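User: structure tokens for ARM repeat superfamily protein, please.
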Amino acid sequence: MEELAGKEENQQVLKVLEALKQASHELQSNPRPKSAESNSHAIKALLELETESDSILSTDPSLSALSYHLSSLKTIVDSLEKSRARHGLRSFLTRRVTTHEISRVAGSIESEIQAWIDRESIENLAHALAHAPPLSASDEKALLRILAHFQNRLAQGFNRELQDLILKSKVFSELESVLINSNYPRIAREQVAFAIDELIRFNKDVFVGKVLMGQAIIRALISLSSSSSLKVLCSLIKSTKSPLVDEIESTGDISKIINLLKSEDLSIQVMAMNCMLEIGYFGRKEAIDAMIKADLIRILVDLQRSELGGDLIEMGRWEEEEREKGRRESRESRERRFLESHPFASCVARFAVQLEVGEGLRQREKRAVKLEILEGVREVCISDAEAATIVAEVLWGSSP
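Assistant: Done. Predicted tokens:
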């Protein structure tokens, strides 16, 4: 009962603070009410809430600074109204300084409110992640809601105070624990994976190391074998580059990703293809050798041969048909739409291009691997015509 009462009280405080935050944000943009009778809506809201919320805010010691700023705002606004009754240069200058003070105090109010909301949100997240599986329907729904709020907050950009809260609360470790625990619902683990990815975007220098310190996160993403987990893996490879690819290669998991290219779920196939392209771009010789050894070239040729494949010649014909239909759009837009309907078009050449322009291989290694790809294509193609088309694409590069 006490825990429930505490949650209800926090929700009441949060409701007041959200209203205060919105009003203070508006006030920073417009700190100049025209008259005593026509104060800005933001000032009215803040001053009314300052009176009504005093008893609520005073119960939380961490909100004492906020109460102080609200009182300061009331004093400054009273001073501004008094200056309007007087005329002259001194009164004019006083009003200019006062409006600047209003904007400054409003900014302090917004910062204090956001800090309180962040503290409460991180505490709620840590509490939700600590729930042992199996989760009830209500607990799962609450966890997904809190994770979504956490991701949205991180997406607003770096904030040192928020980072300190995350590190002190050990939220990253809790996220990792949920991700690697197969007893949690798949959707919860996927949302945790997105939260980890957002943390990397929030501050790569701090959180990438936590991903690389162990192999648990990488292996969990691959074992989930969903389009969402592979999307996160792709994003992490882009952020972390060769070091993460080295980890994937060292655990022998490259072959597992390649096997997902044969999934019956198209979304999984597409995301696995994207992962292969990223690994091809950042992977060192050991990773590329592992890909070729896992029969990647044959699988890519099969995909290119499928209905969702095709080649540059077919794309040219498709573009001509689109023009005949009267569609007017840029070549980039046409290419994007073509790949949406033919995700494996020219996939062998696209993979070869990634190796050619990528960061992982030395120039000598790039030439050697290209010869391996050409040899592999000739071995698995079912006709000379098919081999000639793919070889020509690999030799000259692919642009879709």
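User: Anything notable?

Assistant: The chain has a mean pLDDT of 84.
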